[in-house]
Amino acid sequence: MKKVLTRAATISAAALTMTLIPLAGTSYAATCSGAACDNKGPVATGCDSADVATQRTVNNENRVAELRWSFGCGAAWVRVVQNSSNPVYPAYGYIEKYNSSGTLLKSLSVAFPSSGSDWSNMLGGTSYYYRVCVKFVGNEYPLKCSTKF
């Protein structure tokens, strides 16, 4: 009888442990939605994996800015990718949020890394329009922006 109780306790402990350990690939609910996502990170909130699509892309001298939209969160951010083999001039990627009248409401930026990619915090709300831009420090190259989404 003692063997049966010990085995049952071991199985119960293993089952409890398995429920507490998240499995790889497990998705979690995003922690913000719409305008409540303003100035929050897409990774920290889970919005980066909540039905995301690239809506607009701008390439300015091999500095690429992508307008990323999370349908699950109703929020957008700019993802910047450094594709230049010689990134001498520093540049920034911007995301801009507009109301239906075309008035700029908010803007966030992120510096292009020397290699690889990075992203800004988010701007949210489904009743707004968004665009992304690439701007060089010192204006070595002209400002380039996407159309609004």
Describe the structure using short key phrases:
149 residues; 15% helix
Description:
The protein is of the alpha+beta class and 149 residues long. It is built from 2 helices and 9 strands, in the order ααβββββββββ. The strands form 2 sheets. Strands 1, 2, 3, 6 and 7 form a 5-stranded antiparallel sheet that branches. A 4-stranded antiparallel sheet has the order 5-4-8-9, with no helix packed on it. The chain starts with a helix and ends with a strand. Residues 1-26 have low confidence and may be disordered.
Number of helices: 2
Binned strand content: 35-45%
Largest sheet: 5 strands, antiparallel
Q: What class do helices, strands and sheet pairing give? A: alpha+beta
CA radius of gyration is: 22 Å
N- to C-terminal distance:
69 Å
- Regarding quaternary structure, what we see is single chain
pLDDT averaged over residues: 86
- Outline type: globular
The poorly predicted ranges are 1-26
Give the helices and strands, then pairings.
Layout: H1 2-20, H2 42-45, E1 52-60, E2 63-70, E3 75-82, E4 91-98, E5 104-111, E6 116-119, E7 123-124, E8 129-136, E9 144-145
Antiparallel strand pairs: 1-2, 2-3, 3-6, 3-7, 4-5, 4-8, 8-9
Short description:
The chain is built from two helices and nine strands, in the order H-H-E-E-E-E-E-E-E-E-E. It has helices at 2-20, 42-45, and strands at residues 52-60, 63-70, 75-82, 91-98, 104-111, 116-119, 123-124, 129-136, 144-145. It starts with a helix and ends with a strand.
